[in-house]
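User: Reviewer 2 asked us to show a designed sequence for the structure in our supplementary figure. I'm pasting the structure tokens here. Could you produce the per-position amino acids so we can include them in the response letter?
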């Protein structure tokens, strides 16, 4: 019954370790698989406990193989991963660590994200059950589940949702550990068996132990309390920082330069989008392709971190109506996938997702005919009255979205100051910039690509005859972003496509860019600086003319060249010129090395006690009675050596028996107060050893050998139990008995 309780406690601890991962996974598949793995592993070890120890590992390996097959098959079906089970399993085993650490939370249960936790749980269950059930080393058996529990906590990292939902798990884990120790404990001595001196000793020990424990707790709280309190707000280490997530290539890092090419080829069929807006959603929403956060004065870049995702993309806040889009790719190339903001679920394709921008990408090149479905949560735009009183994040909070590296041309800076005159709040500043652009500039489809400082300056103040003061949505958006950042407004650039009610076809003419400004409490709000169809363009010179410094040379008579990364160059290179998205291994080696030390220690802590127990079992259970009696005597001698009281070599067997009794007894000054009964005698074993020595194989028989084994085992166990706890731990982990196999 005690072994059953220990097995149940170990099983519960393993299951709790798996449940620690549940909040960072989508659905209940992982907790279910981990529970099955823990139960099967422990059950197999319990079932073969009466068989020789060497049968446990092969039986468990066969069970693990079946578990791996079932895990791969079930998770592949759930995650819509196609392919033969052996191939999928091989690929999952080879890439489990990097894909697990680059996956988006909540992690989609797929073969490469669930196989590692399942295998780790199974191996921990095998080690724990063998140590705790077969060899009755319960405290030692806790090491494997504890390492598994710590690994789960490390993998969860700083995820706050997991921290809030799993606070009960450590308490339950500790309760199960205590239950296992209680179930495996030896019965206490009855009160009627204690003498008066023993009662006083017991009281002193209990009181002294309680006072010592209380003193240690108070001392640690005073010494470590302030330090722990200071570290209370620190963010836990995130192991995902050690692995490089998938990266975009140069073509997709700046899709803004592709707008001119798409607008020139206005009839180019890029993709089809069948949009099904929910109640309250926009009827002709913008489909977003990319968000560009970073600007270096020459090029806008995405700068996003795309993490491998399954069908579920992040945790939904439930704000805004749902919009479903079924998208079929035609001539759109690259690796970025279009979708209405903000996507929550993707069906039909495996994607990487950037949670900060809400954009998705493929790990492989887009192919013609690719079909997928996106479910998005469309956040409604705040009304003007709400935005009128809204503030923007401080420069410390939004420094990335205010950066303007290099020297901004004086003319642009002067225009920014002019537009900010008499404007009191952020929304008015943004609206003033939008109104200026839509009233003074012309939207054309044949403007050359470019959004560097010289390009923006030429767009704002260039000669109309030389292409100035007109451009595509690229120039309008880039100019808005630069002016907004000059005005202290956190701004980014979005690239996407305009949809049309009643027509699913998205063509080159539908490609568009727009700026977004961040407001506290409302997030990113889109602005439209493009002129309306009925807008009459007003001359810039009538409302503003930049003041040129006297030392400046006259303005150039020719427009500045376009960016080197023009759409013509990108198109001539073709889709095949773009390198593949890489899923870098990063510092995976660092993780492997860091994990190697605890693995080696765990291997030692498990292997040494198991090997010692196996060697003892073999010596005491194999061979004729004379050999087993000799082995039993050898166990007594080994126990004395481990206790630090080796028997002198000149003593006879009877003298060693008396020496062994004295070695285990308490010292003379505390003999009357000892709480333990007398040590089990080995006198009969000494007589049997002498009989074997003089009579040989014809001496003692089977019953005497069994009696000798029982006497030696009882003596050694009692001798070990009289040591302090730390000496018992050293005794358990001592590898020397593996070579102390000959009788002295």
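Assistant: Here is a per-position design you can include in the supplement:
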């Amino acid at each position: 019954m005690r072994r059953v309780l220990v097995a149940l406690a170990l099983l519960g601890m393993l299951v709790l370790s798996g449940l620690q991962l549940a909040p960072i996974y989508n659905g209940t598949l992982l907790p279910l698989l981990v529970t099955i793995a823990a139960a099967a592993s422990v059950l197999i070890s319990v079932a073969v406990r009466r068989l020789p120890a060497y049968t446990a590992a092969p039986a468990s390996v066969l069970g693990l193989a079946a578990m791996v097959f079932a895990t791969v098959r079930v998770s592949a079906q759930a995650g819509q991963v196609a392919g033969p089970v052996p191939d999928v399993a091989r690929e999952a085993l080879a890439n489990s660590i990097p894909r697990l650490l680059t996956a988006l939370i909540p992690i989609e249960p797929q073969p490469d994200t669930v196989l590692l936790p399942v295998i780790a749980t199974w191996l921990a269950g095998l080690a724990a059950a063998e140590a705790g059930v077969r060899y009755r080393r319960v405290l030692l058996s806790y090491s494997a589940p504890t390492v598994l529990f710590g690994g789960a906590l490390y993998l969860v990292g700083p995820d706050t949702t997991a921290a809030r939902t799993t606070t009960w798990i450590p308490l339950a884990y500790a309760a199960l550990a205590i239950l296992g120790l209680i179930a495996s404990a030896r019965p206490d001595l009855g009160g009627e068996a204690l003498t008066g001196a023993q009662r006083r000793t017991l009281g002193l020990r209990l009181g002294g132990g309680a006072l010592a424990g209380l003193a240690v707790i108070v001392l640690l709280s005073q010494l470590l309390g302030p330090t722990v309190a200071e570290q209370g707000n620190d963010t836990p280490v995130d192991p995902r920082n050690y692995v490089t997530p998938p990266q975009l290539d140069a073509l997709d890092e700046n899709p803004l330069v592709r707008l001119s090419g798409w607008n020139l080829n206005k009839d180019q069929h890029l993709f089809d989008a069948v949009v099904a807006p929910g109640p309250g959603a926009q009827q002709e929403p913008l489909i977003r392709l990319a968000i560009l956060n970073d600007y270096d004065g020459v090029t806008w870049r995405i700068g996003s971190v795309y993490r491998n995702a399954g069908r579920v993309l992040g945790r939904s806040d439930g704000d805004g109506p749902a919009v479903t889009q079924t998208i079929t790719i035609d001539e759109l190339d690259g690796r970025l996938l279009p979708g209405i903001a903000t996507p929550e679920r993707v069906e039909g394709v495996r994607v990487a997702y950037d949670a900060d921008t809400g954009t998705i990408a493929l790990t492989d090149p887009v192919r013609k005919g690719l079909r997928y479905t996106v479910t998005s949560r469309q956040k409604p735009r705040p009304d003007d009255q709400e935005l009128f009183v809204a503030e923007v994040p401080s420069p410390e909070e939004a420094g990335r979205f205010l950066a303007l590296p290099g020297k901004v041309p004086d003319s642009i800076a002067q225009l920014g100051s002019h537009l900010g005159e008499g404007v009191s709040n952020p929304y008015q500043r943004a609206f003033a910039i939008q109104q200026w652009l839509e009233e003074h500039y012309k939207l054309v489809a044949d403007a050359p690509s470019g959004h560097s400082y010289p390009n923006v300056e030429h767009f704002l103040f260039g000669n109309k005859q030389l292409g100035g003061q007109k451009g595509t949505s690229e120039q309008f958006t880039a100019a808005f972003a630069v002016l907004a950042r000059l005005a202290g407004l956190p701004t980014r650039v979005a690239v996407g496509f305009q949809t049309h009610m009643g027509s699913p076809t998205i063509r080159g003419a539908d490609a568009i860019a727009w700026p977004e400004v961040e407001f506290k409490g409302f997030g990113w709000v889109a602005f439209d600086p493009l002129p309306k169809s009925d807008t009459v363009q007003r001359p810039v010179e009538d409302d503003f003319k930049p003041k040129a410094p006297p030392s400046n040379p006259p303005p150039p008579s020719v427009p500045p060249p376009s960016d080197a990364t023009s759409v013509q160059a990108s198109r001539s290179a073709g889709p095949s010129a773009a390198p593949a998205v890489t899923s870098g291994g990063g510092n995976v080696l660092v993780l492997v090395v860091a994990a190697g030390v605890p693995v080696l220690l765990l291997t030692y802590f498990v292997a040494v006690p198991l090997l010692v127990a196996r060697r003892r079992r073999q010596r005491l259970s194999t061979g004729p009675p004379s050999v087993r009696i000799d082995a039993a005597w050898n166990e007594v001698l080994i126990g004395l050596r481990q206790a630090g009281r080796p028997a002198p070599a000149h003593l006879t067997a009877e003298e060693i028996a008396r020496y062994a009794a004295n070695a285990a007894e308490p010292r003379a000054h505390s003999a009357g107060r000892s709480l333990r009964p007398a040590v089990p005698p080995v006198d009969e074993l000494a007589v049997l050893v002498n009989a074997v020595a003089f009579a040989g194989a014809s001496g003692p028989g089977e019953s005497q050998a069994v009696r000798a084994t029982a006497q030696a085992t009882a003596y050694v166990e009692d001798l070990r139990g009289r040591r302090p706890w730390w000496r018992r731990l050293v005794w358990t982990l001592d590898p020397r008995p593996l070579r102390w196999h000959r009788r002295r």
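For the response letter, you might also mention the following. The chain has 25 helices and 17 strands. The first helix runs from residue 2 to 19.
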